[in-house]
Design goal:
This protein has 295 residues and is α/β, with parallel strands linked by helices. It has helices at residues 2-33, 68-71, 86-89, 95-113, 142-154, 214-233, 247-253, 271-279; strands at residues 55-57, 60-66, 76-84, 118-120, 128-138, 177-185, 191-200. The longest helix is centred in the N-terminal third of the chain and has 32 residues, at 2-33.
Protein backbone atom coordinates (compact mmCIF):
# COMPACT_ATOMS: atom_id res chain seq x y z
CA UNK A 1 0.00 0.00 0.00
CA UNK A 2 2.83 2.39 0.89
CA UNK A 3 4.56 1.80 -2.45
CA UNK A 4 1.31 2.42 -4.31
CA UNK A 5 0.83 5.66 -2.38
CA UNK A 6 4.37 6.81 -3.21
CA UNK A 7 3.80 6.03 -6.87
CA UNK A 8 0.55 8.02 -6.87
CA UNK A 9 2.28 10.95 -5.17
CA UNK A 10 5.11 10.97 -7.73
CA UNK A 11 2.64 10.88 -10.63
CA UNK A 12 0.56 13.69 -9.12
CA UNK A 13 3.70 15.76 -8.53
CA UNK A 14 4.85 15.28 -12.12
CA UNK A 15 1.39 16.15 -13.41
CA UNK A 16 1.19 19.31 -11.34
CA UNK A 17 4.62 20.40 -12.53
CA UNK A 18 3.60 19.82 -16.14
CA UNK A 19 0.36 21.74 -15.64
CA UNK A 20 2.25 24.61 -14.01
CA UNK A 21 4.62 24.71 -16.97
CA UNK A 22 1.71 24.85 -19.43
CA UNK A 23 -0.05 27.61 -17.50
CA UNK A 24 3.16 29.63 -17.08
CA UNK A 25 3.83 29.39 -20.80
CA UNK A 26 0.30 30.62 -21.48
CA UNK A 27 0.72 33.55 -19.11
CA UNK A 28 3.99 34.55 -20.75
CA UNK A 29 2.35 34.36 -24.19
CA UNK A 30 -0.60 36.40 -22.97
CA UNK A 31 1.68 39.08 -21.60
CA UNK A 32 3.27 39.51 -25.01
CA UNK A 33 0.15 39.07 -27.12
CA UNK A 34 -2.72 40.76 -25.28
CA UNK A 35 -4.36 44.02 -26.33
CA UNK A 36 -4.34 47.12 -24.15
CA UNK A 37 -7.34 49.40 -24.49
CA UNK A 38 -6.71 53.14 -24.09
CA UNK A 39 -8.42 55.34 -21.53
CA UNK A 40 -8.28 58.77 -23.16
CA UNK A 41 -10.97 61.42 -22.84
CA UNK A 42 -12.77 61.67 -26.17
CA UNK A 43 -15.07 64.59 -25.37
CA UNK A 44 -18.35 62.64 -25.42
CA UNK A 45 -19.22 63.21 -21.74
CA UNK A 46 -20.73 66.45 -20.48
CA UNK A 47 -18.01 66.52 -17.80
CA UNK A 48 -14.87 64.59 -16.90
CA UNK A 49 -14.07 66.56 -13.75
CA UNK A 50 -16.25 64.32 -11.57
CA UNK A 51 -14.50 61.09 -12.54
CA UNK A 52 -12.26 59.38 -10.02
CA UNK A 53 -8.81 57.96 -10.58
CA UNK A 54 -8.35 55.11 -13.05
CA UNK A 55 -8.53 51.61 -11.62
CA UNK A 56 -7.30 48.52 -13.45
CA UNK A 57 -7.79 44.82 -12.83
CA UNK A 58 -7.60 41.73 -15.04
CA UNK A 59 -7.29 43.76 -18.23
CA UNK A 60 -10.23 46.03 -17.39
CA UNK A 61 -9.81 49.76 -16.81
CA UNK A 62 -12.39 52.20 -15.54
CA UNK A 63 -12.92 55.67 -14.13
CA UNK A 64 -16.30 56.50 -12.65
CA UNK A 65 -18.56 58.94 -10.86
CA UNK A 66 -21.94 58.36 -9.28
CA UNK A 67 -24.44 60.50 -7.38
CA UNK A 68 -26.04 57.78 -5.30
CA UNK A 69 -28.44 60.09 -3.45
CA UNK A 70 -30.03 61.30 -6.68
CA UNK A 71 -30.18 57.85 -8.27
CA UNK A 72 -32.05 56.49 -5.25
CA UNK A 73 -34.98 58.77 -6.22
CA UNK A 74 -35.06 57.85 -9.92
CA UNK A 75 -38.08 55.95 -11.20
CA UNK A 76 -37.97 56.14 -15.01
CA UNK A 77 -35.01 55.68 -17.36
CA UNK A 78 -34.62 56.01 -21.11
CA UNK A 79 -31.67 54.77 -23.16
CA UNK A 80 -30.40 56.78 -26.12
CA UNK A 81 -29.08 54.24 -28.66
CA UNK A 82 -25.32 53.83 -28.35
CA UNK A 83 -23.12 55.42 -30.98
CA UNK A 84 -19.49 55.56 -32.11
CA UNK A 85 -16.84 58.21 -32.32
CA UNK A 86 -15.51 58.68 -35.84
CA UNK A 87 -12.25 56.96 -34.91
CA UNK A 88 -13.98 53.91 -33.43
CA UNK A 89 -16.45 53.58 -36.30
CA UNK A 90 -13.63 53.66 -38.85
CA UNK A 91 -12.16 50.49 -37.35
CA UNK A 92 -15.26 48.39 -38.08
CA UNK A 93 -15.73 47.58 -41.76
CA UNK A 94 -19.50 47.18 -42.05
CA UNK A 95 -22.56 49.02 -40.66
CA UNK A 96 -24.04 45.62 -39.75
CA UNK A 97 -21.09 44.82 -37.46
CA UNK A 98 -21.25 48.26 -35.88
CA UNK A 99 -24.96 47.83 -35.23
CA UNK A 100 -24.41 44.35 -33.79
CA UNK A 101 -22.13 45.69 -31.05
CA UNK A 102 -24.16 48.76 -30.09
CA UNK A 103 -27.39 46.78 -30.09
CA UNK A 104 -25.90 44.14 -27.77
CA UNK A 105 -24.75 46.92 -25.44
CA UNK A 106 -28.15 48.67 -25.37
CA UNK A 107 -30.08 45.42 -24.95
CA UNK A 108 -27.93 44.33 -22.02
CA UNK A 109 -28.29 47.75 -20.39
CA UNK A 110 -32.06 47.79 -20.87
CA UNK A 111 -32.59 44.34 -19.37
CA UNK A 112 -30.23 44.93 -16.44
CA UNK A 113 -31.60 48.36 -15.53
CA UNK A 114 -35.10 46.87 -15.50
CA UNK A 115 -34.18 45.28 -12.17
CA UNK A 116 -34.76 48.64 -10.49
CA UNK A 117 -36.08 51.23 -12.93
CA UNK A 118 -39.04 51.54 -15.30
CA UNK A 119 -37.58 51.66 -18.82
CA UNK A 120 -39.32 53.88 -21.37
CA UNK A 121 -38.62 54.44 -25.10
CA UNK A 122 -35.94 56.97 -26.06
CA UNK A 123 -38.51 59.48 -27.35
CA UNK A 124 -40.26 59.62 -23.96
CA UNK A 125 -39.32 61.91 -21.06
CA UNK A 126 -37.70 60.20 -18.07
CA UNK A 127 -36.04 61.00 -14.77
CA UNK A 128 -32.74 59.74 -16.13
CA UNK A 129 -31.28 59.56 -19.64
CA UNK A 130 -28.51 57.05 -20.32
CA UNK A 131 -26.21 57.45 -23.31
CA UNK A 132 -23.14 55.47 -24.32
CA UNK A 133 -20.47 56.10 -26.93
CA UNK A 134 -17.97 53.52 -28.15
CA UNK A 135 -14.69 55.40 -28.29
CA UNK A 136 -12.36 52.65 -29.51
CA UNK A 137 -12.43 49.12 -30.89
CA UNK A 138 -9.67 46.66 -31.59
CA UNK A 139 -11.01 44.18 -34.16
CA UNK A 140 -10.57 40.46 -33.56
CA UNK A 141 -8.25 38.63 -35.96
CA UNK A 142 -10.69 36.13 -37.49
CA UNK A 143 -8.02 33.70 -38.67
CA UNK A 144 -6.37 33.49 -35.28
CA UNK A 145 -9.81 33.17 -33.67
CA UNK A 146 -10.60 30.24 -35.96
CA UNK A 147 -7.36 28.51 -35.01
CA UNK A 148 -8.00 29.25 -31.34
CA UNK A 149 -11.46 27.69 -31.63
CA UNK A 150 -10.01 24.47 -33.01
CA UNK A 151 -7.53 24.33 -30.14
CA UNK A 152 -10.02 25.23 -27.40
CA UNK A 153 -12.79 22.90 -28.60
CA UNK A 154 -10.68 19.90 -29.57
CA UNK A 155 -7.44 20.51 -27.76
CA UNK A 156 -8.61 18.94 -24.53
CA UNK A 157 -8.67 15.53 -26.17
CA UNK A 158 -4.97 15.81 -27.00
CA UNK A 159 -3.86 16.49 -23.43
CA UNK A 160 -2.56 13.64 -21.24
CA UNK A 161 -5.28 12.26 -18.99
CA UNK A 162 -3.35 13.00 -15.82
CA UNK A 163 -3.40 16.78 -16.39
CA UNK A 164 -6.51 18.04 -14.58
CA UNK A 165 -7.46 21.05 -16.73
CA UNK A 166 -11.06 22.09 -17.32
CA UNK A 167 -10.47 23.99 -20.54
CA UNK A 168 -7.75 25.03 -22.93
CA UNK A 169 -6.51 28.65 -22.84
CA UNK A 170 -7.12 30.69 -25.97
CA UNK A 171 -4.24 31.54 -28.31
CA UNK A 172 -3.20 34.94 -26.93
CA UNK A 173 -2.81 36.76 -30.25
CA UNK A 174 -5.23 38.72 -32.40
CA UNK A 175 -7.45 39.52 -29.44
CA UNK A 176 -9.99 42.33 -29.72
CA UNK A 177 -11.23 44.90 -27.25
CA UNK A 178 -13.60 47.77 -26.57
CA UNK A 179 -13.55 51.20 -24.93
CA UNK A 180 -16.76 53.00 -23.93
CA UNK A 181 -17.73 56.29 -22.34
CA UNK A 182 -21.20 56.51 -20.81
CA UNK A 183 -23.17 58.80 -18.56
CA UNK A 184 -26.58 59.23 -17.01
CA UNK A 185 -28.04 62.75 -16.88
CA UNK A 186 -31.17 64.13 -15.28
CA UNK A 187 -33.92 66.14 -17.00
CA UNK A 188 -31.77 69.29 -16.77
CA UNK A 189 -28.81 67.53 -18.39
CA UNK A 190 -26.89 67.41 -15.11
CA UNK A 191 -24.51 64.47 -14.95
CA UNK A 192 -25.54 62.01 -12.21
CA UNK A 193 -23.25 59.10 -13.13
CA UNK A 194 -20.47 58.53 -15.62
CA UNK A 195 -17.97 55.87 -16.55
CA UNK A 196 -14.95 55.56 -18.79
CA UNK A 197 -14.39 51.85 -19.42
CA UNK A 198 -12.01 49.73 -21.44
CA UNK A 199 -11.39 46.01 -21.61
CA UNK A 200 -9.47 43.75 -23.94
CA UNK A 201 -10.25 40.09 -24.37
CA UNK A 202 -7.94 37.76 -22.49
CA UNK A 203 -6.80 34.25 -23.25
CA UNK A 204 -8.45 32.64 -20.21
CA UNK A 205 -11.92 34.23 -19.94
CA UNK A 206 -13.02 35.15 -23.46
CA UNK A 207 -13.99 32.60 -26.10
CA UNK A 208 -12.73 33.18 -29.66
CA UNK A 209 -15.35 33.78 -32.35
CA UNK A 210 -14.95 33.97 -36.12
CA UNK A 211 -15.91 37.62 -36.41
CA UNK A 212 -13.99 40.88 -36.48
CA UNK A 213 -16.30 42.17 -33.75
CA UNK A 214 -16.50 38.89 -31.84
CA UNK A 215 -14.57 40.23 -28.85
CA UNK A 216 -16.15 43.69 -29.00
CA UNK A 217 -19.59 42.05 -28.96
CA UNK A 218 -18.67 40.16 -25.81
CA UNK A 219 -17.11 43.20 -24.13
CA UNK A 220 -20.20 45.31 -24.88
CA UNK A 221 -22.33 43.16 -22.56
CA UNK A 222 -19.61 43.23 -19.90
CA UNK A 223 -19.59 47.02 -20.01
CA UNK A 224 -23.39 47.10 -19.77
CA UNK A 225 -23.23 44.88 -16.70
CA UNK A 226 -20.72 47.19 -14.98
CA UNK A 227 -22.52 50.43 -15.82
CA UNK A 228 -25.96 49.11 -14.86
CA UNK A 229 -24.60 47.93 -11.51
CA UNK A 230 -23.19 51.42 -10.92
CA UNK A 231 -26.59 53.02 -11.54
CA UNK A 232 -28.59 50.45 -9.59
CA UNK A 233 -26.34 50.35 -6.53
CA UNK A 234 -25.51 54.06 -6.55
CA UNK A 235 -21.92 53.33 -5.62
CA UNK A 236 -18.81 51.80 -7.11
CA UNK A 237 -19.60 48.13 -7.76
CA UNK A 238 -17.27 45.39 -6.72
CA UNK A 239 -15.13 43.81 -9.41
CA UNK A 240 -16.65 40.40 -8.60
CA UNK A 241 -20.43 40.15 -8.36
CA UNK A 242 -21.76 36.89 -6.89
CA UNK A 243 -25.42 37.91 -6.72
CA UNK A 244 -28.00 35.76 -8.47
CA UNK A 245 -29.77 37.24 -11.52
CA UNK A 246 -33.42 38.20 -11.22
CA UNK A 247 -36.15 36.07 -12.75
CA UNK A 248 -36.82 38.48 -15.60
CA UNK A 249 -33.12 38.59 -16.49
CA UNK A 250 -32.97 34.81 -16.67
CA UNK A 251 -36.08 34.81 -18.85
CA UNK A 252 -34.60 37.49 -21.09
CA UNK A 253 -31.31 35.56 -21.40
CA UNK A 254 -33.25 32.58 -22.74
CA UNK A 255 -34.84 34.83 -25.37
CA UNK A 256 -38.07 35.48 -23.50
CA UNK A 257 -40.10 38.67 -23.40
CA UNK A 258 -38.34 41.50 -21.51
CA UNK A 259 -39.89 43.12 -18.48
CA UNK A 260 -40.58 46.41 -20.28
CA UNK A 261 -41.73 46.97 -23.85
CA UNK A 262 -38.98 49.54 -24.44
CA UNK A 263 -36.40 46.74 -24.40
CA UNK A 264 -38.06 45.00 -27.35
CA UNK A 265 -36.46 47.61 -29.62
CA UNK A 266 -33.15 45.75 -29.22
CA UNK A 267 -34.48 42.31 -30.07
CA UNK A 268 -34.35 39.18 -27.93
CA UNK A 269 -31.15 37.70 -26.48
CA UNK A 270 -29.82 34.67 -28.42
CA UNK A 271 -30.07 32.41 -25.34
CA UNK A 272 -28.99 28.77 -25.68
CA UNK A 273 -28.40 28.96 -29.45
CA UNK A 274 -26.09 31.90 -28.80
CA UNK A 275 -24.25 30.05 -26.04
CA UNK A 276 -23.72 27.03 -28.30
CA UNK A 277 -22.64 29.30 -31.13
CA UNK A 278 -20.05 30.91 -28.85
CA UNK A 279 -18.86 27.49 -27.67
CA UNK A 280 -17.92 26.54 -31.23
CA UNK A 281 -16.58 29.95 -32.21
CA UNK A 282 -19.34 30.83 -34.65
CA UNK A 283 -20.00 34.50 -35.50
CA UNK A 284 -22.50 36.20 -33.15
CA UNK A 285 -24.34 37.44 -36.26
CA UNK A 286 -25.65 33.92 -36.81
CA UNK A 287 -27.81 33.81 -33.69
CA UNK A 288 -28.30 37.44 -32.60
CA UNK A 289 -31.69 38.72 -33.75
CA UNK A 290 -31.20 42.45 -33.57
CA UNK A 291 -33.94 44.98 -33.09
CA UNK A 292 -34.63 48.00 -35.26
CA UNK A 293 -32.47 50.40 -33.28
CA UNK A 294 -29.90 52.08 -35.54
CA UNK A 295 -26.21 51.49 -34.78
Amino acid sequence: MSSQFDLFRRVAHASSNRLATILMAGIVLAATGCTTMPMEESGTLTSYSNLGAQKSKLGKKRRLFVDGDYLSQVRTVRIIPASYTFVAASKVKTPADRSLVTNALDRALCVALSDRYHLVPPDRQADLTVRSVITDIVPTNKRVAAAATVVSVGGGFALPENIPVVGVPRIPFGLGGLSVEAEAVDSRNVQRAAMMWGRSANFLQDKPRYSEVGDAYSQATKFARDFSRLLIKGREPRMLDLSLPSGHRVRSWFGGKPKYEACEAYGRAPGLPGALSAKFGLPPQWTDKRGKTPG
